Amino acid sequence: MFIKKMNFRFLLVLVTVAVSLSKQDEEANMFIPSLEIDPQSARILLNSNDFESGSADPWYDSSSSTVHWVVEDFTMPSEVNYPPPIPSSGTKYLRATRDAQLSPGFVILRTVEFMALPGDRITFKFWIRSKYTFGNTLELILAIGDTETTLLTLSSYSTSVNLEWRQASTLIPVPEPTVLTLAFYASCGGNAEDAIAIDDIVLEPSDEITTTGLTTVTSTTTVKPKDCAPYFQGNTKVPCWALGNKCYCFTNSNSGNWEQADAFCRTGNMTLLSVETEEEEKLIYNHWQVHPELKSEKYWTSGKFPQKGYNRTYEWATVEPFQRFTYTNWQSGKPGHSDFGYCVYFFMDFDFESGYYWVDYSCYSLYLEYICESV
User: Fold this and answer.
1) Dihedral angle at the C-alpha atoms of 316, 320, 321, 322, nearest 10 degrees?
2) What's the chain's Rg over C-alpha atoms?
3) In this structure, are strands 178-188 and 105-111 parallel, antiparallel, or unpaired?
4) How do strand 216-218 and strand 166-171 relate by DSSP bridges?
5) Residue 362, Cα to own-chain centre: how many angstroms?
6) How does residue 183 score in pLDDT terms, banded at 50, 70 and 90?
7) Contacts for 71-74: CB closer than 8 Å, 24+ residues apart
8) How far apart are the first and last CA of the chain?
9) How far apart are CA 245 and CA 223, in angstroms?
10) DSSP assignment, residue 30?
């Protein structure tokens, strides 16, 4: 009797919602990792991923933003005004797809756990483009337990004129058979030109490496710091990552003045960040971009103007004798102070037009976070 009395329009709404949810569930299931798959079987699945089947297995989307990975067909691009270049083979690939408003966001693509062997190499093709140079980020991350290591950073290819698929290749640095996962961390902007796509991911054992005529990007194999724990002294509010050959820990709620920051890092046998090269600076900035849990934009570095009577220029105040800057990236018009009591913070912003740069600031100012690095 109750159903008969229900308004027909209300019933229609219920049916429409049910169909819509069913469709969403069906699309989402494309990226649910296979259940009960052992690491050795997962390794076999990684031998070739060209996505022509319409499935991403054993890769899956773990994004939590408005941008998601979808298997796209070149003949039916999701953003018709900016289709990708023609794939070298097949028609399907993975693309970071935004909503109708082109909302920017972070996307994460992971593998299920698999067994990696010494000499393994991961090779893939990618296409990354942005309105502003370096506007989008794309990183390949290796994760063993809670420890993550950056294997490749490909943001330098993010330009408005990049209209070709490129190939990247890197060794998986393990000394013995190791169960691990790989992940692509990427940020895609909200400009119409912004795009990221991945195709032809192949796990190549050391005796089966092949070459192609495409442009190849090869990372330098680096040794993961042995003392890079997931968190600084077990503090879950200070996550740590192995980037390059150093360990970096980012505070997330331990804001304080420069002296407090310096003392904090030293309690863990680390020092405040010294930005010694442009490559190191880009590595940190790109990593910060794809980790939205790092909420601060301002981080103390070890940069400091020395005591009066000493060297009258900014130095990295870590291990004595302190070192003068050999590389700088000051904000326009900075430093504005050349006197005792001023230190340097590293400013990072999602808006690439603002970019990332250094600012001189009173060492006694509070409420800045800080980055500790291994000695």
Assistant:
1) 10
2) 24
3) antiparallel
4) parallel
5) 31
6) very high
7) 71/30, 72/97, 72/197
8) 76
9) 6
10) G
Question: Quick one: CA torsion of 68, 72, 78, 82, rounded to 10 degrees?
Answer: 100
Residue 104 tokens read as 């920017």
What secondary structure letter does DSSP report for 64? Answer: -
Instruction: Please report how many Cα atoms fall inside a 13 Å half-sphere around the Cα of residue 303, on the Cβ side.
Output: 29
pLDDT tens-digit readout, 108-129: 999 999 999 998 999 999 999 9
Which residue type does 209 have?
Answer: I
**Residue whose token pair is 């870590």:** 318
* Dist CA 250 CA 261 (whole Å): 11
Let me know: does 368 contact 261? Beta carbons within 8 Å.
yes
Summarize pLDDT for 69-99 with one digit per residue, the tens: 999 999 888 887 777 888 888 999 999 998 8
What's residue 146's pLDDT?
A: 81
Task: Tell me the two tokens of residue 99.
Answer: 């909503």
Residues paired with residue 71 on neighbouring β-strands, in sequence order = 94
Tokens of 361: 């600031």
Which residue matches tokens 């809670």? 146
